Amino acid sequence: MTEHGERPTPDRDRALRETHRETGEDGVRQDTPQGTSPGPAQGTPHDNGAQVSTGIDTVGFPEAAIPELVIISGMSGAGRSTAAKCLEDLGWFVVDNLPPALIPTMVDLGARSQGNVARIAVVVDVRGRRFFDNLRESLADLDARGVTRRIVFLESSDEALVRRFESVRRPHPLQGDGRIVDGIAAERELLRELRGDADLVIDTSSLNVHELRAKMDARFAGEEEPELRATVMSFGFKYGLPVDADLVADMRFLPNPHWVPELRPFTGLNEEVAGYVFNQPGAKEFLDRYAELLRLVAAGYRREGKRYVTIAIGCTGGKHRSVAMSEKLAARLAAEGVETVVVHRDMGRE
User: Fold this and answer.
1) Considering Cα of 261, then 267, then 273, then 278, what sign does the dihedral take?
2) What is the DSSP letter of 96?
3) CA distances from 164 to 27, 81, 170, 204 (A)
4) How far apart are CA 140 and CA 123, in angstroms?
5) Is residue 319 within 8 Å of 235, Cβ to Cβ?
6) Nearest 5°: phi and psi at 232?
7) pLDDT at 50
8) Are 117 and 19 a contacting pair, CB within 8 Å?
9) Any idea which of 87-96, 123-132, 133-142, 266-275 has the lowest mean pLDDT?
């Protein structure tokens, strides 16, 4: 039986014979070729003492067998382990805390498994410390070899991260002799460039474990992914900007239904409220022109290989104008073939 209780299949047996899973005392999974023994010629030690073989030639991958690759990174405490376990449950071959310099080697092992390891996910984070600088070089190497790879970045607010570290009474891996917030600040700076390159950013500040798994399932469970997936999120500026937004639009140029007594109790999902919003000067024009702008942006995202986009539509409280506009905009995107999810982040908070 596997660690999740599922019965091994012949394909998985063959895959596991190719790459033997070891678990160290700290629970970190590393993958080494079965039958190799640690030593200068075969293994490269890293921070947690595990050995990962580098004795296989990675000059070129068999073109037809190149596995799909997802790199999971982000802030410590933001849910990387949960995201990795979700992909493992979906049938991905997961390697935790793999030094970035060894990612091409891991892909080469998958390519040599004759299709038995078709999807690989690796978790890369600051625990690798001195190895982390090698990530960009490894990514460039993979791009040159035609490997399909995506970066998933787990984000969270400082307040949420501090609360999580304090609840488990563990230090941040980068805080040293300082405070937790010092470690968080250092990690944000270290990961800043990687976050900018990410294909998918998930803010877990207000998510529980089940909600994070649902987000991962929604993006990776399907056998065939659409060209572009969009999340249209309404929000209230008084509650702060969504940190995972790619694009932000401000609806505060429209009159606020909050000041209309008969509309105040309702939300932008109500027909009367939506009608009030779209009868205001500029509302329909904004919808038409912003939808046109998004068509241009979406085409560029597709060319650049970006598969996920979060469009944030804000008003003062996230209850009326932003909700109504988000619903209309999402309907436009869906009609144009973009798989779209609508999220009303702050509706109901008042």
Assistant:
1) positive
2) S
3) 19, 14, 9, 12
4) 18
5) no
6) -100, 115
7) 36
8) yes
9) 123-132
Give, to the nearest 10 degrees, the angle between helix 283-303 and helix 271-278.
90
pLDDT at 314: 97
Amino acid at 100: P
Spatial distance between the Cα atoms of 159 and 120, rounded to a whole number of angstroms: 32
d(CA 90, CA 74): 21
**Cβ-based neighbours of 208, under 8 Å, separated by 6 or more:** none
Least confident of 13-22, 73-82, 129-138, 244-253: 13-22
* Length of the chain (residues): 350
Asked whether residue 16 carries a pLDDT value surpassing 70, the answer given is no
User: In whole angstroms, how large is the CA radius of gyration of the chain?
Assistant: 23
Average the pLDDT over each of 83-97, 206-220, 307-321 and give the range with the smallest value: 206-220
Token reading at 337? 């073939």
Rounded distance between C-alpha atoms, residue 346 and residue 350, angstroms? 8
DSSP conformation class of 155: E
Q: What's the mean pLDDT in 271-299?
A: 95
Amino acid at 119: R
